[in-house]
Design a protein that fits this description.
This protein is mainly beta. The chain has 1 helix and 31 strands. The chain is elongated, with a radius of gyration of 28 Å.
Length: 494
């Protein structure tokens, strides 16, 4: 008997020390998240929750948001409510969050847990009168509420400018922060909360951006991420998601990229392996006298050392009927180009040599350089080109004499709009939150947004939400641009 017990002990110790940790996460569940189907509760009703967050407390997910019903969204009948779930798929309605809330317009409920007081703390944004933005704070003994208001006018550093959208974040040391924007100028900043999370310390890191809203803040490894973008008042086209990164939760944020905007307007002509003179892309001069750059996003990282750019030399201004004119058409000029490769979310200029071959309808511009590997190129037309438009038929990419098959490998060309606000979002949603999620692949982060105007019955309370597949981070910690995903799966852990 003793021998059997000893063998069992040895086996247990072996398992504990040598098998991966996921083998002991017995409470695993594969889930499927759909972005095409409405989220319904246990009674089969639309879940009317928007501009909030999903938090996990004591092994259960709680989804907090604003209920709009069949309204315009800017009404005093808005209220905050909560649903709960064990798997992010099956939801049970828990009820309204606030007790005896004064009359006003309510948005963005966020709940965090205070270890020091053992209370669940609700922050919310509300307007006694539009647009007198205020923050309120309420507490509860349970994550689902109801919550009792303890301060309906919490002062923050920039309260005098009015306050609007916000996000809450609790760091690994249990210090909490609020990322919010002002009403005046929609300027964003991050501020430290008191130890009980019921008010602000008024320690603020200064303005990070302006004309922005719907900020979400989180930490991954030793970096802090703030995601936000231009204002989007229930806009159906969606807003972007600029990524700011810092080593400090309140200040030092640097803009890295925008993961929810295309680089520009998609060109279906430049990399399609089809060349015909009158099928071309117009590259236009902008107000600052510079031409719109062209960004090439290759289907995969490749090695190359030359480009061929086909310029259409037709469609030039001409005159007819002037017998004294010495020229009928404008002169043909060949544009000069600069080539850049992406480096740390910036651009590195490539030293190159250019040769030009003229033909009946094209200038064939060959640009050669030392070979390098990349998945992204930027091509700029130099401003010395005398006309306001350059007509390009095709761009071919070569490694030695072998041409890359860009039409087959999913490569894309974008003509960059110099005004980022006019560049279409990838996901037509307004950001609400970035949800940390423990999965079998480790800690992951889920971007969430409201698909305003998506309800087929045009009922705002029925508008869908987009919950993206886990964000992808590169070796430097930068976030890759998102892609629309109809449906995705993962395995969640308790």
């Amino acid at each position: 008997m003793i021998l059997i017990k000893m063998k069992r002990l040895i086996i247990t110790l072996f398992l504990l020390f040598f098998l991966p940790g996921q083998y002991f996460c017995f409470a695993q569940k594969e889930i499927t998240i759909s972005n095409l189907k409405p989220r319904l509760d246990a009674e089969g009703r639309f879940i009317d929750l928007h501009d909030g967050r999903v938090a996990k407390f004591e092994g259960k997910f709680y989804w907090y948001g604003t209920a709009y019903g069949n309204t315009s969204g800017v009404v005093r009948s808005n209220f905050s409510q909560c649903y709960s779930s064990s798997d992010l798929m099956n939801w049970t309605q828990e009820g309204s969050l606030l007790e005896n809330a004064p009359s006003g317009v309510y948005y963005r409920p966020h709940v965090i847990y205070s270890k020091s007081t053992k209370k669940y703390v609700l922050w919310y944004n509300w307007y006694p009168r539009l647009w007198e933005g205020k923050f309120g704070v309420a507490i509860s003994d349970q994550p689902e509420g109801p919550f009792t208001i303890i301060n309906a006018d919490v002062k923050v550093f920039y309260s005098y400018m009015g306050v609007g959208d916000f996000g809450l974040f609790v760091d690994e040391d249990d210090v909490a922060y609020i990322a919010y924007n002002t009403i005046q100028g929609h300027k964003g900043s991050v501020e430290k909360l008191t130890g009980d999370y019921l008010s602000s310390t008024l320690e603020n890191g200064g303005f990070i951006n302006e004309n922005c809203e719907a900020g979400a803040i989180f930490r991954r490894n030793d970096k802090y991420y703030l995601l936000t973008d231009y204002t989007c008042c229930f806009c159906s086209q969606g807003s972007g998601a600029r990524v700011y990164i810092s080593d400090n939760p309140m200040k030092g944020y640097q803009l890295r990229n925008n993961i929810n905007r295309f680089p520009g307007t998609l060109s279906t002509r430049l990399l399609d392996d089809f060349r015909s003179p009158n099928i071309y892309e117009s590259i236009s001069r902008q107000r600052d006298s510079l031409f719109s750059p062209i960004e090439l996003t290759l289907g995969r990282e490749s090695t190359f050392n030359s480009l061929k750019i086909y310029q259409f030399t037709g469609n030039r201004h001409g005159i007819c009927g002037d017998t004294l004119a010495t020229k009928v058409h404008d002169d043909i000029f060949t544009p000069e180009f600069e080539i850049f490769s992406r480096k740390d979310n910036g651009w590195n200029k490539i030293s190159s040599h250019t040769a030009i071959e003229t033909s009946s309808v094209y200038n064939i511009i060959s640009i050669t350089f030392d070979p390098f590997s990349s998945s992204t190129l930027l091509i700029k037309v130099l401003p010395e080109y005398p006309y306001n438009s350059v007509y390009l038929n095709e761009i071919e990419i070569y490694h030695d004499e072998r041409r890359l098959e860009t039409a087959r490998d999913g490569s894309l060309a974008f003509v960059i709009n110099m005004d980022p606000a006019q560049t279409p979002p990838i996901i037509p949603a307004q950001q609400t939150f970035v949800m940390p999620l423990k999965t079998s692949e480790g800690n992951q982060f889920i971007w969430m947004g409201d698909l305003w105007g998506s309800a087929s019955d045009n009922n705002k309370g029925h508008d869908y939400q987009y919950w993206g597949a886990p964000l992808i981070f590169d070796e430097e910690g930068d976030i890759e641009p998102m892609e629309w995903v109809d449906e995705w799966k993962t395995v969640i852990l308790d």
